[in-house]
Amino acid sequence: MAQEKKLVESITSRDVDFAQWYTDVVKKAELTGYTSVKGCMVFKPAGYAIWENIRNELDRRFKETGVENVYLPMFIPESLLNKEKDHVEGFAPEVAWVTYGGLTELQERMCVRPTSETLFCDLYAKDIHSYRDLPKIYNQWCSVVRWEKTTRPFLRSREFLWQEGHTAHATAEEAEARTEQMLNVYADFLEDYLAIPVVRGRKTDKEKFAGAEATYTIEALMHDGKALQSGTSHNFGDGFARAFGIQFADKDNQLKYVHQTSWGMTTRLIGAIIMVHGDDSGLVLPPRVAPTQCVVIPIRQKAEGVMEKADEINAALKAAGIRSKVDDTDRSPGWKFADQEMRGFPMRIEVGPKDIEKGECVLVRRDTREKYQVKIEHVAEEAAKLLETIQKDMFERAKAFRDSHISTAVTYDEFRDAADNKPGFIRAAWCGETACEDQIKADTTCTSRCMAFGDDEAPEGAVCVCCGKPAKKLVYWGKAY
Amino acid sequence: MAQEKKLVESITSRDVDFAQWYTDVVKKAELTGYTSVKGCMVFKPAGYAIWENIRNELDRRFKETGVENVYLPMFIPESLLNKEKDHVEGFAPEVAWVTYGGLTELQERMCVRPTSETLFCDLYAKDIHSYRDLPKIYNQWCSVVRWEKTTRPFLRSREFLWQEGHTAHATAEEAEARTEQMLNVYADFLEDYLAIPVVRGRKTDKEKFAGAEATYTIEALMHDGKALQSGTSHNFGDGFARAFGIQFADKDNQLKYVHQTSWGMTTRLIGAIIMVHGDDSGLVLPPRVAPTQCVVIPIRQKAEGVMEKADEINAALKAAGIRSKVDDTDRSPGWKFADQEMRGFPMRIEVGPKDIEKGECVLVRRDTREKYQVKIEHVAEEAAKLLETIQKDMFERAKAFRDSHISTAVTYDEFRDAADNKPGFIRAAWCGETACEDQIKADTTCTSRCMAFGDDEAPEGAVCVCCGKPAKKLVYWGKAY
After folding, report:
1. From the CB of residue B377, how many other CB atoms can be counted at a distance below 10 Å?
2. What's the CATH number where B436 sits?
3. CA-CA distance, A332 to A335, in Å (whole number)?
4. By CA distance, what is A124's nearest residue in B?
């Protein structure tokens, strides 16, 4: 067991140094790697396979709501980026500029897309003429670039993978309905598929997207008590349509501007999975998103019949649709157990000569380490049931953790105390002024995460936690990634 | 039928002006669009959905051979690109250069990847230490940029989508086997899935990839008699490994260089589908790759029971796994027929009151326009069978066309006559000198497409078709996209 010990010791405890623990897990589970490109990361097979599952499942859910995929150029001419004032101010300082094509200096420089609102508007201005051309419910899967100074794997890097949906509608109501619909698609996806509970809500003006009328967000709580903005959906009203001249002849023969939305989710979701579910032994993947759901580990694999039985179990699991494999390397069982835990496979099955004699094998959960002695003849159905249980339990545990990390502050002293001593969300009333958000951030590093749907009303007579003036809204505050 | 006529008339006949016909089909079938980004194209939903099917099927086939997907940065620092001499000479003249990040000029400029050999080498140099780390069978799906002067949708654009596989092996034999294996994956994919017959072979030194020891290719013949290079697989030997210092300790404790391969396929395959299968009514999609395989068109759709029956047929097809939809717009049936033909859906089903009385509907093939009266109760199985027949017939027709467009030239006069008057491949013997390839290209615009596997031996005593010296190889020549 010396190797196993060493393998686990190489991960920093998450309660000792959460940031280092995160870095260790990302590295030891071989999710990412470095190259000579500063600020950019490599998605290694184990990391990219998680993204593939996220993409495939989210794409399936998108298409159920009528989304069509497209692909637009990665370059945006400077004049196009400049068309919408708030938008360009938000993004121009952090884009990468292409100035040469081959040996020739470009007449107009182009940025690598930080997001594609302007390109979609350019396309929509060409393609939308009549109400018959509406709605457009387009999405693209691609990478985008933002020239960040400090970077961390999955959470912040100069290039990251994401999807960006961009829609155009005949009416403001339809655009608003789509904005909310997609936020709910995101929220349900995180809760059902990634076992991550979220707070759904609306951003304050200070925190909303550059060019948006309203931004909705889902906020998840990491194990260290920090919030992670995990998906956003924006209603642009007709602001972009006016800047880009996107008009259509309506049924009443009037020329009208379209109403637009956009919504995106990124590879930082992988960071969320790590920081919500991981533990001191490494990654813990929820079964639904796990590229490998089960690894079968033979005990005394050279003993007669053991490898055959391991293969038989593996085949039964695969036939039942479980993503399973056998670890038949020449390592010790102890090393393999530690390796499975490090990589976060939700379940392992141990099978050795003594088990085989009894016609049994042992199922071990990654999340709780509980063991179950199971008849080999029933292994596929038992494994399928256990994976469902693990998925459900992981969500419930994350939700209980999240719920126990929401505090309420009425006075500014209470707020500062919570910010210092109670990791998690702080519910506190707010006057609606950006100045108070700035003050709170300066004093505590907390930012307004959202005004939660169904929980955004300031109590009767409440005052702003910062300035003491009458409160307009109840806000979820937090330190954020 | 006036509308129908107009719809079809808007496509130029492919025998009158093939290039214009191509442009018309791409536009009318709404596969691509333009934006303000010069030289780049938009993949619209109908075009992107074809690429999604190509990607998903090819990815499935890759994974069966042990391929793992990764994602590497889109930027390559100039010093990294410069590391392998032949490679940088091949690509540096046509890359886009990023020189600013936000407001800051970069200390070292970076290109947007034209291909990622250098990045994979950089990663492999860090990750490969022992024979235990081999082989690496990585692939990525991404876009790449080459600063082309003249562009055409799918065939040549400044940014295009592709996959690039990059592998590292312990031995030269293993690398060679992988190079050939992936070429065969490509060839089988084109033939089985896209119904496009290919010639498999090896490139001459003049035509091989910058930095490769050997390049294998699949060459397809378009309807105008021009060749389209449709996929390539390269064996690098240990050239890149020496330039990047990728060494491993082998089982014999010797430090050795790895042997590498790369292989890629791009969105130009969509151009191949159009140019092999399309006709004067528009696109013709092989059933396996078609995003929509069947459209059900109600005749007299306001008559009682017609829409219900159309929906019932559609539901039966979907239940049988056929990608089907109903065209329930307020257009005339004739307009819908023309629209289905334009978009290349492999099959339509017509159903009206008279058919319903007999319990029947009409299946119409896109490729041959043949009609089949079919009992509605058997529609799903009949449609499934017909789609298989269409797939098979489309391949056989394309193969017969290709085979009838291969001529053989012994003398240079014969070669020039074939180049002028016989569209297609020209089989001709060659001395092995680049000078003759240059001469032939200057005189006829033909290039050596490949030395075909199993058909690359110059006949006994044959001489080079160009210079008359003893021939070393039999080559397939052609005008190419």
Report:
1. 11
2. 3.30.110.30
3. 5
4. B35
Interface probe with A: pick from B35, B72, B94, most Cβ of A within 10 Å: B35
Nearest CA to B320 out of B344, B293, B289 is that of B293
Residue that terminates a domain, selected from A388, A414, A446: A388
* pLDDT tens profile A432-460: 999 999 999 999 999 999 999 999 999 99
Task: Provide the number of structural domains found in chain A.
Answer: 3
Rounded Cα distance, B170 and A8, in Å: 31
Do B128 and B258 reside in the same domain of the chain?
Answer: yes
For chain B, the C-alpha Rg in angstroms (whole number) is 25
Whole-angstrom distance, CA of residue B340 vs CA of residue A30: 48
Q: How far apart are CA B365 and CA B342, in angstroms?
A: 13
Q: Of the candidates B33, B70, B99, which has its C-beta nearest A44's C-beta?
A: B70
Statement to judge: residues B411 and B346 lie in one domain: no
- Which residues from chain B sit within 8 angstroms of residue A100, using beta carbons? 96-97, 99, 109
Quick check: A44 and A32 in contact, CB under 8 A? yes
Cβ separation A37–B119 shorter than 8 A: yes
**How far is the alpha carbon of A413 from chain B, nearest alpha carbon, in Å?**
40
CB atoms A73 and B35 under 8 Å: yes
Query: Is residue B287, in this structure, part of any structural domain at all?
Result: no
Where residue B7 falls among pLDDT bands split at 50, 70, 90?
Answer: low
Does A284 map to a domain? no
Report the predicted TM-score, pTM, of the whole model to 2 decimal places. Answer: 0.96
Judgement on whether residues A452 and A371 belong to the same structural domain of the protein:
no
Contact B76/A37, CB-based, under 8 Å?
Answer: yes
Indicate the burial class of A200 (C-beta count within 10 angstroms; 0-12, 13-18, 19 or more). Answer: buried
Residues B230 and B83 in one domain: yes
Residue A455 lies in a domain: yes
Q: Hey, are the CB atoms on B35 and A126 less than 8 Å from each other? A: yes
What distance in Å separates the CA atoms of residue B476 and residue B446, rounded to the nearest whole number? 10
Find tokens 């990791």 and name the residue: A423
pLDDT, tens digit (0-9, with 9 covering 90-100), for A217-251: 999 999 999 999 999 999 999 999 999 999 999 99
- Domain of A410 in residue numbering reads as 406-478
Burial of A127 (0-12, 13-18, 19+ CB in 10 A): middle
| Same structural domain, A175 and A313 | no
B5 in any annotated domain: no
The residue of chain B with its CA nearest to that of A161 is: B71
- The ipTM is 0.95
